[in-house]
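Handout, section 3.2

Students often ask what a structure token actually looks like in practice. Rather than define it abstractly, here is a full record for Cell division protein FtsX. The first block is the sequence as you would receive it.
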Amino acid sequence: MNAGLIFAEVGNGLRRNASMVVSVILVTFVSLTFVGTAALLQLQIAQMKNYWYDRAQVAVYLCADLSGGACTGGAATEEQRDTIEAVLNSDTLAKFVDEYYFEDREQAFENFQEQFAGTPAADYATPEMLNETFWVNLVDPSQSDVIAEALAGTAGVESVVDQRRYLDQIFDVLNAASFTSIAIAVVMLVAAVLLIATTIRLSAFSRRRELGIMRLVGASNRFIQTPFVLEGVFAGLIGSLLAGGAVVAIVRLFVQGYLAERLAFTSFVDLGDALLVVPLLVLVGVVLAAISAAIAISRYLKT
């Protein structure tokens, strides 16, 4: 098989259908950018889970003056606080509790003011409205139910809350965004495959006389098909490389250059994660282009 002749045919095909090739590159670029974004989002979710789940605490909220429900006797007394602390220090919970600390009303009010500074809530809140709290770090954060069961019905306890519940809600939103990106990417990839197939068929139609002559002189189907497959692979490769560059730029400029600087309390994906995604995008782009081009030219030659 003459490689020079094949690449000459590839160049002729790309020149004759330049506008369609550009369209294929752009559609591939957009679709694979969504694929890369979805992959990065999944990596980010996994990283945040590892980071935050190990730091998630169990909050034992004590009864406050305005508490209702089980807090029929008003705010928790000092004796009730000592009882709760004794439970946390008991041999039963020793193997589950890593450490804990107590937050009184003044500390809770100070933290509340910092968290909600500049909002109406900060202006109207008073220390008496806030709960005193035992913040508990567990050896295994997934065993928060043990704390809830141990303190169930204890006088002075308003509620026991596992902070992982709030994290689960955030991760559910992030997962929904990731699945949305995947759905859009799938639609765009289908469009790219169809566009590649159409481009190859148009390229073959524009060279139908040359193809007829090649058949007459005994050229094999493989020899005829190879230039068209390479045209599709070229377009898919360029589109996937552009998508890889876009993914790296998103991580470098937006995630690390913007989010990481303003949200320093958590961890984010970095360039290393982005560079793991790029080969995947190139592989998907090239394989899809090669398969769709091969099927398109094969069907055309059979007609």
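Discussion prompt for tutorial groups: The CA atoms of residues 2 and 223 lie 9 Å apart. How would you have guessed this from the sequence alone?
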